[in-house]
């Protein structure tokens, strides 16, 4: 079985440690235990919180120090003081009377301190229960905060996924629009090319007809010229024959 520890041992500080040392040790122990989610660490954290609440206050610390200094053999110290005082009273010595007075004073003080032990213990138990309740509430608040954080993370993930899907949809729609626009441009270019080709073919046909027309005119002029020439030559011959007669 693990030996019983006092609050100083729980915080890992000496009994003459000041408040600053106690606070520093508490923060170290708290950080160490909060990083471990096991049940032993949770229970140890409750003890650490109780130790810190008790030792950081000078009044509760003094009461606790007196408590741990008392032992079972000192359960009723006033009895021994009264017994010693009774024995000294029979001596009749002046020094004994003075000692008797001191013993009576210390006996009354010891009896008063002993009477306060039970109240101090009850106070520490109640304070420990309050600390345990505080720790339990903190644990519940931590669980609620973690649950809220997880729900927020899930909501953020869902929003990010919806945003990505929306972005993908918009990107796909933009690509589709660009493809359709490019298709229309390509079709327009093809129509213009075909029109230009048709115009060029029509111009070539017109030029061919013009050349044929010019060639036909030239042939007609040649035929007319030769006909006229032959006619003129025949007429000249007839005139010469007539003169010869």
From TrEMBL:
<feature type="coiled-coil region">
    <location>
        <begin position="145"/>
        <end position="216"/>
    </location>
</feature>
<keyword id="KW-0175">Coiled coil</keyword>
<dbReference type="InterPro" id="IPR001623">
    <property type="entry name" value="DnaJ_domain"/>
</dbReference>
<dbReference type="InterPro" id="IPR036869">
    <property type="entry name" value="J_dom_sf"/>
</dbReference>
<feature type="domain" description="J">
    <location>
        <begin position="6"/>
        <end position="68"/>
    </location>
</feature>
<dbReference type="Pfam" id="PF00226">
    <property type="entry name" value="DnaJ"/>
</dbReference>
<protein>
    <submittedName>
        <fullName>DnaJ-like protein</fullName>
    </submittedName>
</protein>
